[in-house]
Amino acid sequence: MAIQLTPDQEQRIQAVVDTGAYASAEEALNAALAVVETAASAGFDGTQEQLDTLLQEGLTSGEPIEANDAFWNRLRAETDHMAAEHQTLKPGL
């Protein structure tokens, strides 16, 4: 299967690679697919609330080890925004 990335998607992947988080675009895409596969996995026996809790714990599990602060600051801001939107859509979690 051939997949065509949008210019924005290519730029976002290259930005992650440029930070040194991954050695190549292929590695970055493989990591992204692993996250999607985990999220879509029918094998998770917990509730949506438990999954949300695990994801939140991962997001707040500590300071990043990577030396590139700009990348981690941008990632933290994006995930904080996503978590806030999720909480708005699912109040009480």
Q: Tell me the total number of β-strands.
A: 0
Number of domains: 1
**Count of runs of 4 or more consecutive helical residues:** 4
Silhouette: globular
Please give the alpha-carbon distance between the first and last residues: 38 Å
pLDDT under 50 segments (min length 5)? none
Radius of gyration: 15 Å
Structural class: mainly alpha
Strand content: under 5%
The topology string of helices and strands comes to HHHH
Percentage of residues assigned to helices: 55-70%
Short description:
The protein is mostly helical and 93 residues long. The protein has helices at 7-18, 25-40, 48-59, 69-89. The chain has one domain (11-38, 46-89).
Helices, strands, pairings?
Layout: H1 7-18, H2 25-40, H3 48-59, H4 69-89
What tags apply to this protein structure?
mainly alpha, globular
Can you give a write-up of this model?
The chain is an all-alpha fold and 93 residues long. The chain has one domain. 66% of the residues lie in helices and 0% in strands. It is built from four helices and no strands. The longest helix has 21 residues. The chain starts with 6 loop residues before the first helix and ends with a helix. The model has no long low-confidence stretch (mean pLDDT 77).
